[in-house]
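Form 7-S
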Amino acid sequence: MAVHRVDSLPELARVAAEVHAGSVELLVEPFLPGREFTVAVVGDRALPVIEIELTTPLFDYAAKYQPGAASEVCPARIPDALASRLQEAALRAHRALGFGGDAYSRTDFRCDAAGEPMCLEVNALPGMTAMSLLPLAGSGADWSYPDLVQRIVDLARG
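Output:
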């Protein structure tokens, strides 16, 4: 799977032709040029908002794993009202997908040109490595990594 940003119809036609030649599906969506955030939910609790600050136009594979291409700030330096809005939206998305108090997830948002956050996706199995966003959110809630793991294990025990 590849991510392409196109800025014209001829560019889109070129990418579509390349994709069609590879017999894979093409998903086209508008580019959201604003800030990027993610919110983890553990059980019934939304953790602090993380902002992903990019030095590249997209948070693609290279940006995610290339040193210096992105920094993650937790808690995000945003007004409390925006943080609450993002946390509530993450909780609503978590619940809408049937996840309850016995599950965890992470919801990604990107803002449009007017600063309005749009939900990009809900990750039903967010990463748990030392460099992953869920442990970073846990640290923003003053949870150590072992605390986070124990909370997730406790969710399964019900």
